[in-house]
TrEMBL record:
Belongs to the heat shock protein 70 family. The lineage of its organism: Eukaryota, Metazoa, Spiralia, Lophotrochozoa, Mollusca. The gene is ORF171469. Pfam families: HSP70. InterPro entries: HSP70_C_sf (IPR029048), HSP70_peptide-bd_sf (IPR029047), Hsp_70_fam (IPR013126). This is Molecular chaperone DnaK. Keywords: ATP-binding, Nucleotide-binding.
Amino acid sequence: PQIEVTFDIDANGIVNVSARDKGTGKEQQIVIQSSGGLSKDDIENMVRNAEIHAAEDKKKKDLIEILNQADGIIH
């Protein structure tokens, strides 16, 4: 059977999952809610760290893209 599965995560961390059998059209859905999660402080720290390292991450990404282009030219 071919099953089409869809995941949707909203801003509150609630996950909606649906699965549909393409042959029969039968569909099932489930909602998963987090019993815990990250605190506001945890999220703010993660965002702050991402901002701090953004320039370094971009340099690494740019270097990898250049190396991939060079590799593509060689092969």
